[in-house]
Each structure stands twice: as C-alpha cells, then as structure tokens.
Write a structure and sequence with these properties.
Blueprint lengths: L1 H9 L2 H4 L2 H13 L8 H10 L3 H13 L7 H13 L4 H10 L7 H15 L6 H16 L9 H11 L3 H13 L6 H13 L3 H10 L5 H13 L3 H13 L7 H13 L3 H13 L6 H13 L3 H10 L5 H13 L3 H13 L6 H13 L3 H14 L5 H14 L2 H10 L5 H12 L4 H13 L6 H14 L2 H14 L5 H13 L3 H10 L4 H12 L4 H13 L6 H13 L3 H13 L6 H13 L3 H10 L5 H13 L3 H13 L6 H14 L2 H13 L6 H13 L3 H10 L6 H14 L2 H14 L4 H13 L3 H13 L8 E6 L2 E6 L6 H8 L1
Antiparallel strand pairs: 1-2
Helix pairs in contact: 4-6, 5-6, 6-7, 6-8, 7-8, 8-9, 8-10, 10-11, 10-12, 12-13, 12-14, 13-14, 14-15, 14-16, 15-16, 16-17, 16-18, 17-18, 18-19, 18-20, 19-20, 20-21, 20-22, 21-22, 22-23, 22-24, 23-24, 24-25, 24-26, 25-26, 26-27, 26-28, 27-28, 28-29, 28-30, 29-30, 30-31, 30-32, 31-32, 32-33, ...
The protein binds one DNA strand through helix 10, helix 12, helix 14, helix 16 and helix 18.
DNA sequence: GCAGTCCAAG
C-alpha cells in the first residue's frame, strides 16, 4: 500500500487520484486506527486530491481527532491549499496557520499560506483583500519570525505583484532577491518576467531575459506571452521564430496557443499557415487547445474555409472548439452560419457556457433577430449565466439596439458586478437614442460608483453633449480626459473637436485640433464646423491644408467646403473645388453633387446648377429640394413649381422638406392660393407639418397682407409656435408697418431667442420707422443689458488664391491690393 | 513553486 501511494505521489497526485479512489481511501482512513495517519504522504495525497469541500473538511476533522493538528506542518499546509482551491473559508486558512504550534511553524508554512492567498486573490474574481493578506504574510516572514524567505517564497509574492500591478512592491522584492542571491533561480526569474511584463516594462523584460543564467521552456513562453499581451506583435513573432530556429527548446502547446492569436491580430494568414504546418511537423495537431486556437486564428484572418476545415478534422472537440467556430464565423459577419453552428452545437448536446452566449448575442443583433436573442437570454437564465459580465453586457447592447430600454436597464440593474463595458453600453444606448441627458447623467453616476470613464465612454457621451449643445458638460469631460491622458487618442480628440464645433466654439475646437493627433476626420469636422459660422474662409484654408499635409479630401470634405463657399458666395473658390472634385471623379457622388447644387443656387448661378442637376443619374429628394429652393429664392417661382411637379412624376419620394421648398417658393411669388393648395396637399399625404411649414404659411399670408389669416393660423396651432413662426410674422409686420402685431410677435420671439441679435434689431428698427423712438431705445438697451452682441457685417474678397474676410469698420490691408495689381 | 485556447461597449 505504501509503495502504491508513494508511486502515485511521485507521478503527481493531482491528476491520478480519481474521485472514487479518494472516496475509498477516506472511508478506509476513517475506519482505521491512528497508525495509518503516520504515513504523512498518504494524507498529503488525499488533501491534494480532495475534490469537494466536504472531503477536505472530513480530512480536517480526522486530523484533529487523531491529534496531528495543530502539530503537523505538512497537514496544515495541505489543508490550507485544499481550502484555497475551493475559494472558500479564508478565515479557516489563517486559523490553520495560527493554530499550528509556533515551534513547528516554518518558512514552508508561510509559503503555503502565501500561495493560498495568491490562489484566492487571483481567482476568477480579483480579491484585493486576499492580495493584501498575502503581502502581510510576506512581510511577516521578515519581521516577526526567525525564518527567511526562500526560493519558494518569491514566485508567489511576485505573482501577486504581477497580478495586482504592484510595481513598487515588485521592485522592492526584486531588490530583496538580488540581495539574498535568489536571482539565479529560474522559477523566480520567470515570475519576475511576468511581473515586469504586466507592468508594461518591456525594457526590463528584455534585459532580464538576456541576463538570466538559466532559461527553460516556461521562460520562453512567458516572454512570448508578455510581448503579445503588450501588443508587440512583430516582436512576439520574432521571439517565436528565434525559439524555433535558435534555442534548444521546442514550442509546446502553451507556446503555440500564445503565438496564434498574435498571428490572427496581424491578420497574417501565411503566418497562421506556417504555425499550422509546424504543429503538424512536431505532432501537436491532436491537441484540442491548439485546434481551438487554430480555428480562432483562421476566423480572425477571415478564412472561413480553413476555419471549418480545421474544425472538421479535429479529433477531439470541446465546448471551446464550438465557441471558436461560432465566434470565427460571426467575426467576419457570417452570422447565419454562426447561428447554424449554434443550433448544431445544441443538437450535438454540447454544453453551452457563458462564452457561447456572449458570442452568439452580437451575431443575432447583427441579423436583427431580436426575438431569437430574447430566447437566448432565456437560455442564459436557465444556465445561470445571465449575470455574467460578458453575457449581461451583450444583453444590454442587444436590448438597447432593439429599443427596449427597460430590458436593457433590467439586465444592468440586476448585475452584481458591473464593469466599464456595462456602463459604456448603457451610456451608448442612451446617447444613440436621443436620450442625451440620461447618457450624461449616467457618466456621473458611473464615476460615483468608482468606475473610471475610458475612451469608449467619451466617444459615446461627447456626441451627446454636442447634440445638446451643452458646452458645460462637454468641458467638464474634456478636463477629465486631459487628466486621464485619453485626450490624446484620436477617437477622443475627434469627438472633442466635434463637440466644440457643434457647440459653436470653433476657437476651442481649433485648439484641440492643434494639440492632438489628426486624421481626415479631424479635418472634416473643422471644415464642416467652420462652414456653419462666420469664419467660412477657415474651411477653405483647411481644405487646402489637407492636400499639403498629404491627406486625401473625401466626400465629407467636399460637402463642407462647398457649404462654406455657398455661405460666403465664394464663387471662384467653389468652382475650383468643383473642378478639383471632377479630377478625382468625386463629383459623381450624389452628396457632393447635391452640395454643388446648393452652392450654385445660393450663388445665383442657376444655369450651372441646372447643368449639374441634369447630369445626376439618380437624383434623391435633396437634389430636387435644392433646385426648388433655388428657383424660389431667385423668384423663378413658376420653374420652382414645375420642378416640384416633375419631382412627383419622377417617383422620387418627396418629403417634408420638399413642401418647405415649394411653400417658400409660393411665398416668394405671392401665390397664396397655390400655397394653400400645397399645404392641404401635404396634409392629405399624411406629412405632419413642422414649425417650418407653419412659418412658410405665416410668411405666405403675411407677405400678401393677409395678417388676420396669419394670426388665426398661429392661434389655431396645437404646437407652441416656434421662433421661425414668430419671425415670419414679425417680418410681415415690418413689411406692412403693423406695429401692434409686430410687438406681439417680437416679444414672443425675444422670449424664445434672447440671444438672437437679429430679432432685437428688427424690432428696434420697426419702432424707429413708426417714429416710436423711446420704444426703439428700450429695445436697444434691453439688448445691451442682455449682453447680446450684434454680429458685425462681414464680407469676403478673393485675391489671387487667397480669400480674405473683413468686417465692418476694418480696412483691407493695402499691401494685398498692391499684390493683386501686380 | 512560474506560462495557458473561446466572449461584451465606440
């Protein structure tokens, strides 16, 4: 019997002890007399192999009963480890340690407790408290005992430092082991590699790896892992090649499964294939983990044939293989195939796990199979994985994209362990569904819960601030990104630039732009931003600058710069852009063509606009609307109406904007009856009139002097009249000198737009024209009191290639004129 | 005593 046990222990008891064997031995031991217990080996074996908590407790009780505890260090240690493996009873661990009689404690017992805390701390859920307990035991070893740390102590404490990124402590331990000369030990150095790697200190990793007196297979695997974890993919592949070609070590399963994801991220199908060949050559192809990693790698490279081939040929498959298959298919959008495999997996009676669910859900979202997704949610509840972070986060995303906010927030609230992705998914749901305030508030709440917003949070919430125009919140977030350093990520700086631009703070937008990384998107944001301000000429210079810094203008750039040209009537510059776009064949893009129409009509070049329009092969509503608006603006009301009728015949889906265009044309031409007809026509089409439509109608009636009808229309509205409506009425009143009605309109207008200088000016001028000077003065004072600045009159001139803007009261630099005459 | 395949948010 003893020999049998001994042999087992020598060949690693963990793997050989079957459940039944342990049961039998336990039964035997509890029945037998105490001499059996002297065979410590036997007990250790049992402890190591104990497969349930109650077995360990049984052994524990027997040991106390037979008087081996609290004397035997071996038994205490074995029990401590056994308890730690069940992630339970942390108090029992320390009790076992402290109850062991002081004279029989040893460095070994300290090491065991330290190891146990390492196991507890670095389990599936990180436990900082157990990590702290581990560090206490390590410190205790120096201070309160007569023992010294040994080569078994350091790997554990270093693992804690590595897992918890305790950089200072790790450096201290490194110093200590140099002092105590344990730095020759290969185990210690391997863990040290991991520590430096996790801290991102690759320089130290490289140096240590070069200086290590001895390396083993694990050293190579660790260093490969560390480089891949730090995103140094080419270096990782280099190390792998060096290992194969130069070192005396042969890659094993761990090496291959570490290097394959790197080949996958590099999307280097040749690399994956060569590793695949190598695996065959050295006979590792039967390894299920390698097969799984292979399936995954081919999937990430988008080679569906190879992926399915490897999967088919695998001699052994587990649930990870199926998950990899499904994930690989879904990764490149083969969602239907992924769903088929998922069904097959169920039919084959494979065990689904949380990863299967978290892989399948996004594929179903992509397919818009939401009710199927809800079924999968049901599965996950049955399996008890619905509050797993990955599953729950995928569910939050799914319900959000489905528009089921209560579903999303139910999942979110039920999670007992949220992470930053959970918060970001919720924030994204709100931000992308026009619930901006909720998104912004959730960022605050997230911080109150101790979660730090990352770049994804910011790229989600900044557009929400932009849409709300809430500069204050945007600035608050900006300050935070500077503190956290994430403002330097391209995505974030672009979102910041966009937020400032949309809030109208182009100076701040420009500032972010000037101090951050830039790409084409950054330029487009500013070009578009400036095109909607008084600084349109900046759009033009940025457009040219793109060319100079080697960036290619795209559709968005053309659209932005053409809007700018239209706003400042920069005809020559706009035509240059047109020619430029033609050389790049970009003018064929519908959006660019529509921008050209807008530009030419606003500049009054209706003939060129017509030519551009005629050459658009497939016009959309915007193309037609722009032309109708253009003709209307130029007073060619008949043509505008003809275009509107032609549009209907062209089977283009005319929209509410089309009616704004045609109504404003009628209004310009004084065609009251025609306008009314179109308005009724619109109602008959079930197009809900907006404030803009009513404003057109008020304008139409008002211009023709039908003030009463205009007022009746305003009074009959079910909605609260907006600024456009009051503005239209005010304009009409000024035209017809109706001061009383004008005041009524203007007071409403100023209430809605207290910062709109034009309204004050209009009202004040109207009073002045009616000779009511004191009233005019009152309005001027009100405007000054509210600190409303009147936008100065501004004009532009193009001299040679340069566009110059100047405002009222400012003189053009004479040198420019000289230059132009040269 | 040290390394270890598959999953979620823009």
């Amino acid at each position: 019997m003893f020999h049998h046990v001994r042999a087992l222990r020598l060949t690693s008891c963990k793997f050989l002890c079957s459940h039944i064997h342990v049961q039998r031995r336990l039964f035997f031991l509890s029945a037998a007399a105490s001499p059996q217990w002297r065979q410590t080996t036997d007990i250790l074996l049992l402890c190591a192999a104990a497969q349930t908590l109650s077995q360990s407790q049984q052994i524990h009780a027997q040991a106390v009963l037979h008087g081996h505890l609290p004397r035997s260090v071996s038994i205490s240690s074995a029990l401590i480890l056994s308890y730690a493996n069940f992630y339970s009873q942390p108090s029992a661990l320390y009790a076992l340690f402290s109850q062991t009689l002081p004279f029989s404690r040893s460095a070994f017992l300290h090491n065991t407790l330290l190891r146990a805390y390492t196991v507890l701390a670095s389990g599936s859920q990180k436990s900082y408290i157990d990590a702290a307990r581990g560090f206490l035991i390590y410190n205790d070893l120096f201070r309160n005992t007569g023992f010294q740390p040994d080569d078994h102590t350091f790997p554990f404490v270093l693992k804690l430092c590595a897992d918890f990124l305790e950089r200072a402590k790790g450096l201290e331990v490194h110093g200590m082991l140099t002092k105590t000369r344990f730095n020759d030990d290969v185990f210690v150095n391997n863990t040290l590699l991991l520590f430096y790697g996790n801290c991102g200190d690759l320089g130290s990793v490289e140096k240590l790896f070069d200086d290590m007196p001895e390396r083993d297979l694990i050293s190579w695997n660790t260093v490969i892992r560390v480089f891949s974890d730090n995103g140094c993919w080419l270096e990782t592949v280099g190390l792998f090649k060096e290992m194969v070609l130069v070192s005396r070590f042969r890659p094993n399963t761990v090496t291959v499964v570490s290097v394959l994801p790197v080949c996958a991220w590099l999307e280097d199908i040749n690399l994956v294939s060569s590793v695949h060949c190598y695996v065959f050559k050295v006979g590792l192809d039967g390894e299920v983990r390698i097969g799984n990693a292979m399936v995954d790698a081919y999937g990430k490279c988008g080679n569906v044939a190879a992926l399915s081939g490897v999967f088919e040929e695998m001699v052994e498959r587990n649930e990870v293989s199926w998950n990899s298959l499904i994930g690989g298919l879904a990764y490149r959008g083969f969602n239907t195939d992924a769903l088929d495999s998922f069904r097959l997996m169920i039919n084959e009676n494979m065990k689904l796990n949380s990863i299967t669910i978290a892989t399948m859900l996004p594929a179903l979202v992509d397919l818009r199979f939401f009710s199927k997704g809800r079924e999968v949610h049901g599965f996950s509840i049955k399996m008890g994985v619905d509050s797993d972070v990955f599953v729950a986060n995928a569910l939050i995303d799914m319900y959000g994209k489905w528009g089921h906010f209560t579903g999303a927030s139910n999942v979110f609230c039920k999670m007992d362990l949220k992470n930053v992705v959970s918060w970001n998914s919720m924030i994204g749901n709100f931000a992308q569904n026009k619930r901006e305030l909720e998104a912004i508030n959730l960022v605050r709440e997230m911080q109150a819960h101790g979660e730090i917003p990352n770049s994804v949070t910011l790229t989600n919430v900044l557009p929400a601030c932009a849409r709300l125009g809430s500069l204050y919140q945007g600035k608050e977030i900006h300050a935070r990104t500077i503190r956290k350093g994430s403002a330097f990520e391209l995505f974030v700086s672009n979102a910041l630039t966009d937020m400032y631009a949309k809030c109208g703070c182009l100076d701040l937008a420009q500032n972010v732009f000037d101090t951050s990384l830039r790409d084409e998107v950054s330029y487009n944001i500013l070009i578009t931003g400036y095109s909607q301000t008084n600084d349109c000429h900046n759009s033009l210079s940025l457009f040219s600058e793109m060319e100079m810094v080697g960036m290619k203008q795209d559709i968005v750039s053309y659209m932005g710069v053409l809007t700018a040209c239209a706003n400042i009537l920069a005809i020559r510059k706009g035509m240059e852009v047109h020619a430029f776009a033609m050389r790049r064949l970009s003018h064929e893009h519908l959006f660019v063509a529509n921008s050209l129409l807008d530009f030419y009509t606003k500049c009054g070049r209706i003939k060129i606009a017509t030519k551009v329009f005629d050459r658009i092969p497939l016009r959309d509503a915007a193309s037609w609307n722009t032309m109708i608006l253009g003709f209307g603006m130029l007073g060619e009301v008949g043509t505008a109406i003809n275009y509107f009728e032609a549009m209907k015949e062209d089977n283009v889906e005319y929209d509410s904007v089309s009616y704004i265009a045609v109504l404003s044309a009628c209004s310009h031409g004084g065609l009251v009856e025609k306008g009314k007809e179109y308005f009724d026509d619109m109602l008959a089409q079930n197009i809900k009139p907006s404030g803009m439509h009513y404003a057109c109608m008020v304008d139409l009636l008002g211009r023709s002097g039908l003030m009463e009808q205009a007022v009746d229309l305003i009074k009959s509205l079910s909605m609260k009249p907006d600024a456009n409506i009051w503005g239209a009425l005010l304009g009409a009143c000024r035209l017809h000198g109706n001061v009383e009605l004008g005041c009524w309109a203007a007071e409403h207008l100023l209430e809605l737009r207290p910062d709109h200088s034009g309204s004050y000016a209009l009202l004040s001028n109207m009073y002045a024209e009616a000779g009511r000077w004191d009233e005019a003065d009152r309005i001027r004072k009100l405007m000054n009191g509210r600190k409303v600045k009147k936008n100065p009159g501004c004009s532009w001139v193009q001299i040679q290639d340069q566009l110059h803007s100047f405002i009222v009261g400012q003189r053009l630099d004479p040198s420019l004129l000289l230059e132009s005459s040269r």
